[in-house]
UniProtKB/TrEMBL annotation:
It catalyses: prephenate + H(+) = 3-phenylpyruvate + CO2 + H2O. Pfam families: PDT. It is an enzyme of class 4 (lyase). Residues 200-277 form the ACT domain. Keywords: Amino-acid biosynthesis, Aromatic amino acid biosynthesis, Lyase, Phenylalanine biosynthesis. The gene is pheA. This is Prephenate dehydratase. One of its GO terms (molecular function) is prephenate dehydratase activity. The keyword Transmembrane does not apply.
C-alpha cells in the first residue's frame, strides 16, 4: 500500500484533499512543500501531494519553482477541491472580534479573506504560518485573544470553534493540488477522472519580438486548447523567463511531438512536466 505525503500538519486543505482522494494508504505530513517533494525524490514516500494553484491567489510559486529548479518530479495526477475558509477561535472566546489581537493563517488564506478581515477585524495583526493547520494549532495552545483562518477539519482536529463560516471573499474558490511520484506510476484515486491535462515547461532561446506569439501559434493552428500560460523567472538574470503551459488533453503520438519539433526548430526547450488525469473533488 502506497505511502502518501502531504503538506501538514493535521487540518490543512492538502490533508482534506488526500483524505478525499485516496482510499487507504499510510499518510505522512511534512512541515513544508520542499520537505514533501524531497521525500518523494528520496523515496521516503511513494506519492506527494502539494498545492499548485489557487483560484483567487494564483500559482503557489514555491511549489512550481521547486519542481522546476530543484527537483524534477513528474505530475501524475491533479486534485481540485473547493476551498471554504472559516474563522476559528477558542471554545471560550467571548465573541467580540474587536478583542482579537492576531489572526494566524497561511498567507494565501489571509489574502483570500481580506474583505471580511478589513470589515470586521481592522485592528487585528496578521501572522503568517506555514499552513492553515499550523495556524489552528497555534490558536489552540494560546492564552491570548487570537483567531485562525482554516477549514472545518482544522477546527475538529484542534478543538476550536467555528466563529464564522465561509469568510473568503469569493464564492468559487478552488485549489489545484499536484500529485507527484518519482517513476510516473499511475495512482488509484477514489473516483473516476473528470478530464486529462498535459503540463509543459518551455524556455525561449532569447527575448526577441514575436517569440511568445510563435510559441502559442504552434498550439493554436493545431486547435489545442490551453487552460493556462504563465511566465516565471529563470533565476539567471533579469529578463530571462520560462513558461508553464497547461494543455487540456493527454499527451499523444501526433500533436505533441509536432509541437515539440516546431518549438525546438525555433530554438526553444520543451520539457513535459506531466500528462495526467484531473479529479474534481467535493469535500
Amino acid at each position: 500500500m502506497a505511502a502518501i505525503g502531504y503538506l501538514g500538519p493535521r487540518g490543512t486543505f492538502t490533508k482534506m484533499a488526500v483524505d478525499t482522494a485516496f482510499n487507504g494508504g499510510e499518510k505522512q505530513s511534512f512541515t513544508t512543500i520542499p520537505n514533501c517533494i524531497d521525500a518523494v525524490q528520496n523515496q521516503q514516500i511513494d506519492i506527494g501531494v502539494v498545492p499548485l494553484e489557487n483560484a483567487i491567489e494564483g500559482t503557489v510559486q514555491l511549489t512550481l519553482d521547486y519542481l522546476v529548479h530543484e527537483v524534477r518530479l513528474p505530475i501524475v495526477a491533479e486534485i481540485v477541491v473547493p476551498i471554504k475558509q472559516h474563522l476559528l477561535v477558542a471554545p471560550d472566546f467571548s465573541g467580540d472580534l474587536t478583542k482579537v489581537r492576531t489572526v494566524y493563517s497561511h498567507s494565501h488564506a489571509i489574502a483570500q479573506c481580506h474583505q471580511f478581515l478589513h470589515k470586521h477585524m481592522p485592528a487585528a495583526a496578521f501572522s503568517f504560518s506555514s499552513s492553515t493547520g499550523k495556524a489552528a494549532d497555534i490558536v489552540s495552545s494560546s492564552d491570548e485573544a487570537v483567531a485562525a483562518i482554516g477549514n472545518r477539519l482544522a477546527a475538529h482536529e484542534y478543538g476550536l470553534r467555528i466563529y464564522q463560516e465561509n469568510i473568503h471573499d469569493y464564492p468559487h474558490n478552488h485549489t489545484r493540488f499536484a500529485v507527484l511520484a518519482k517513476d510516473k506510476q499511475p495512482v488509484n484515486l477514489s473516483q473516476e477522472a473528470d478530464s486529462e491535462k498535459t503540463s509543459l515547461l518551455i524556455t525561449l532561446p532569447s527575448d526577441y519580438a514575436g517569440a511568445l506569439h510563435q510559441v502559442l501559434s504552434a498550439f493554436a493552428w493545431r486547435k489545442m486548447n490551453l487552460s493556462k500560460i504563465e511566465s516565471r523567472p529563470m533565476k539567471t538574470g533579469l529578463g530571462n523567463y520560462f513558461f508553464i503551459v497547461d494543455v487540456n488533453q493527454p499527451y499523444d503520438a501526433v500533436l505533441f511531438p509536432g509541437v515539440r519539433a516546431e518549438l525546438e526548430a525555433l530554438g526553444c526547450g520543451v520539457t513535459v512536466l506531466g500528462t495526467y488525469p484531473v479529479y474534481q473533488m467535493d469535500v
